[in-house]
Amino acid sequence: MKFRVTFHRVVAWWLGIFSILTILSGYAASRKWFTNREFMVDAHIVLKWSFVVLFLIHIIYTLAFVRIGKAIRRNPGKHKVRVVQGVSKWLVLAFGFLIILTGFSQYEWTGAVFHKWLPFWVHKVFDVGLTISIIVHTMAGVKIISKRNKIEKVWIDVLIWIVGIALMAGIIFLEVTMNLS
Ligand code: HEM
Ligand code: HEM
Predict the structure, then answer these.
(1) 104 lines ligand 2 (CB under 6 A)
(2) Would the pTM of this model clear 0.70, i.e. be above it?
(3) Average confidence (pLDDT) over 62-81
(4) Which residue's C-alpha comes closest to atom 31 of ligand 1?
(5) Which residues contact 34 (CB under 8 A, 6 or more apart)?
(6) Which atom of ligand 2 is nearest to the CA of 19?
(7) Range of 84's domain?
(8) CA–CA separation, 87 vs 84, rounded Å?
(9) Is residue 178 helix, strand or coil?
């Protein structure tokens, strides 16, 4: 396999791992899951840089090299998972930049400008949109891997649905029990 393709896949899956860590550390900080809240805030601030770097590499790579749009547009019924991956990628892109930019309202050096236009409550409300679109996008990635490796089994599809729905239900639960203060 070409180095370029391997690199792209490795970046995509590490991005998945750092998304989980960044999101979990964000919730751990805001929901005070641990007594040392400051540590979780610091962990979140550090982890998000790995997220941002991998996110940008993944976006630049897919915009520059991935050309799968035409085949999908010609026959969307045959490429349902690709359609899901394609739609979710735009949602991740939009929510991703919104969450990163609203994060900057927390810094002293950027806070004055960002607080006015992108207040921090947006970070705590629209994070659910980012998380759900990442889950959908990544679950589509898992399905594509199973196709690529010709291990298409019903139980794999069932597992993808169960894990996806359980993760989304968990995030929605966290959001509805949110304290905006
Ligand atoms: C946190 C955000 C994201 C995560 C965790 C993520 C993760 C993934 C994963 C795991 C795959 C499957 C890789 C594989 O086939 O082995 C993938 C594919 C893809 N992603 Fe993302 N992604 C994210 C954001 C985005 C964004 C913002 C875009 C838009 C530019 C995008 C565009 C794509 C495309 C076009 C593919 C298909 C590439 C291919 O089949 O070669 N992704 N992504
Ligand atoms: C400049 C970047 C960022 C900064 C400075 C930042 C800062 C913070 C801080 C301080 C909190 C805790 C809020 C509180 O306790 O009131 C938080 C929460 C959170 N952050 Fe970030 N963050 C950034 C980027 C990100 C990114 C890229 C993601 C997602 C991948 C993310 C996801 C979250 C989540 C899910 C929460 C929990 C919000 C809630 O309780 O609903 N953050 N962020």
Answers:
(1) yes
(2) yes
(3) 78
(4) 89
(5) 28, 40
(6) 30
(7) 77-181
(8) 5
(9) coil
Rounded Cα–Cα distance for residues 170 and 89 (Å): 21
Tell which of 11, 46, 66 closes a domain. 66
Using a 6 Å cutoff on CB, does residue 102 contact ligand 2? no
The greatest distance separating any two alpha carbons of the chain, rounded to the nearest whole angstrom, comes to: 54
Residue 10 pLDDT: 95
pLDDT (mean) for 66-73: 74
Q: How distant is the alpha carbon of residue 88 from its chain centre? A: 10
Residues 55 and 94 occupy one common structural domain: no
pLDDT exceeds cutoff 90 at 167: yes
167, 137 Cβ separation under 8 angstroms? no
Distance CA 2, CA 84 (A): 26
Reported as half-sphere exposure (CB side, CA atoms, 13 A), residue 152 has a value of 5
Give pLDDT, residue 64. 86
Please report, to the nearest 10 degrees, the dihedral formed by the alpha carbons of residues 17, 54, 142, 146 taken in order. -120
Do 9 and 90 belong to one domain? no
